[in-house]
């Protein structure tokens, strides 16, 4: 009720008022800040969160702020709380957590348009805190921990792959250069000798094993072994088989020498005692008759 005096709002200076007829209303034109209380909001994906914010505004037209609205400050506070609930209700939880800047800009635009007829200019809106339920916090923490473990395993697997590739390349280099493995062998022996150990075991040189594995017997030696094994040597008491026995024995000794050169043990010989043949108690390269 009432009317504004001619000339509108007065600036700084000395003024005269008539008691009981004139009333003075002071309007602060500075930027005002207030906190929006935490609002319980149900998000679009049905998650209940508590969100609070802070609003910065100023009155740019004091005459309109006095005549068009009863209390511009209180009206702006209530409108900010309802706008916060309306905006967050259309967002998912992930959007609220990751898009705070866009939500703040949207709230600032909506509040500024709604308070413009009141002579109020909303300069800035900031979302302060988003509080989640305890169960949801635990679930999100477990999910984040699982994601970190998965990334760590991927990184470890990549490291092992690179290490295996490097070992393969090193093995190829050593395989191409026979002297490289000898140098590594000498370096290993030097390292072992520097340590104070009571017992040192030297491995068998690889080159000796390689030469032994690649050694092959000649074809003539193999045929001689087969022929000597196939012939049976029998020694009797009669004089008629004496010549044959001596020739067989000499042939058997030649075969035994060839076997000894190849590292093959000779077959067991038989002898006769009184017409009955038996295996000798110990392996020998000579045949005899009794």
UniProtKB/TrEMBL annotation:
- Classification via SUPFAM superfamilies: Band 7/SPFH domain
Query: In terms of one coarse class, where is the protein primarily found?
Result: membrane
Report if keyword Zinc is assigned. no
Q: Which compartments is it annotated to reside in?
A: Membrane
- Give one Pfam family: Band_7
Polar residues: compositionally biased ranges: 275-290
InterPro entries the record matches: Band-7_stomatin-like, Band_7, Band_7/SPFH_dom_sf, Band_7/stomatin-like_CS, Stomatin_HflK_fam
According to the record, the residues making up region (Disordered) are 233-290
Q: Which part of the chain is the Band domain?
A: 1-144
Q: Which family does it belong to?
A: Belongs to the band 7/mec-2 family.
- Name under which the protein is recorded: Band 7 domain-containing protein
In its UniProt entry, the species of origin is given as Hymenolepis diminuta
């Amino acid at each position: 009720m009432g009317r504004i005096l001619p000339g509108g709002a007065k600036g700084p200076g000395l003024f005269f008022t008539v008691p009981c007829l004139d009333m003075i209303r002071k309007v602060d034109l500075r930027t005002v800040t207030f906190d929006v209380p935490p609002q319980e909001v149900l998000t679009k994906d049905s998650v209940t969160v508590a969100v609070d914010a802070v609003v910065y505004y100023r009155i740019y037209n004091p005459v309109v702020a006095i005549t068009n609205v009863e209390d511009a400050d209180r009206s702006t506070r209530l409108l900010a709380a309802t706008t916060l609930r309306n905006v967050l209700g259309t967002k998912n939880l992930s959007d609220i957590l990751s898009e705070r800047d866009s939500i703040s800009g949207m709230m600032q635009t909506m509040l500024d348009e709604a308070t413009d007829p009141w002579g109020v200019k909303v300069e800035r809106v900031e979302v302060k805190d988003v509080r989640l339920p305890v169960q949801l916090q635990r679930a999100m923490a477990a999910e984040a921990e699982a994601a970190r473990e998965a990334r760590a395993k991927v990184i470890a697997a990549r490291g092992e792959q690179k290490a295996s590739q490097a070992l393969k390349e090193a093995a190829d280099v050593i395989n191409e250069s026979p002297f490289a493995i000898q140098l590594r062998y000498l370096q290993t022996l030097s390292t072992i000798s520097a340590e104070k150990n009571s017992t040192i075991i030297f491995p068998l040189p690889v080159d000796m094993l390689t030469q032994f594995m690649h050694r092959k017997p000649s074809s003539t030696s193999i045929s001689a072994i087969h022929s000597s094994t196939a012939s049976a040597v029998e020694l009797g008491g009669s004089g008629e088989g004496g010549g044959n026995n001596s020739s067989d024995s000499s042939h058997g000794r030649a075969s035994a020498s060839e076997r000894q050169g190849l590292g093959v043990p000779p077959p067991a010989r038989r002898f006769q005692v009184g017409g009955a043949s038996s295996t000798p108690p110990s392996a020998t390269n000579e045949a005899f008759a009794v």
